[in-house]
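debug: dumping io for the single-chain case to check the tokenizer round-trip. Nothing else runs in this session.
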Amino acid sequence: MSEIRVNDVSLYYEEHGAGEPIVCIHGTGSSAAFWADALDELAKHGRATAYDRRGCFRSERPEPYVTNVHQQADDAAALIDALDAAPAIVIGRSYGGEIAVDLALRYPGRVRALALLEGGAFSMSESFMRWDAELKQQVFAAAEVDMSTVAETFLRAVLGDAAWEGFPEPAKRMFTGNGPAIVAELRGGLLDVSAGELGTIVQPTLLVAGKDSAPAFVEMTNLMAMAMPSARVEWAEGGHLINPAHAAVLGFVDEVLALKEEPSTA
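debug: decoded output
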């Protein structure tokens, strides 16, 4: 468990296991702490690194805090370079999947393969864009009244009431503390990516979607699958909060590691 300074911000990170690099990127409001059990499993397959993204939990949050997907991907690329972890199998959940896609598009040499857990190209789905607009209205209204209510408002909308109620108190405190990061990421907007751009990603890609997720997430996954010749889809039980150590993900990691690594460009 360490801190590293990249792009003028201090990031908390931790590494588990040894071998080929696996880099994990969490979603909005979360942190590496929420991936603890998954990291233990991933560490059996390689050198698994997770970090708290800029503005989240144990990492630095500049003030005033503004951010976007491109900045977060720049951080991910710099972290991979600093840790000598290129090219990495990159696992991104939700907003972390958007960051992973942007990383593959703008820093292809850092990415060996992608595992996207209901994340990556939300802007391609008209249903998601409508849902996202309503979500932002709720979250921004909560922020104006009391920033400490932002995380609960956001997670109840995204995951459902039962999921929020089921989180242990330490997790709720972590999410609540990330309220300003949630607002900043929503204000920063979605990754604007086209089907044509997705089609240029040649790295092996796994799309994992929840069988019980909202239709907007399902539509986004299907659109991405059609756009990416390198991608395949696995449907997991449950909703949006997909386990990064799902059997499909672990199997995919092993498949990628068994492939002969091809030289990549920049």
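debug: round-trip ok. Residues 172 and 251 are 31 Å apart (CA to CA).
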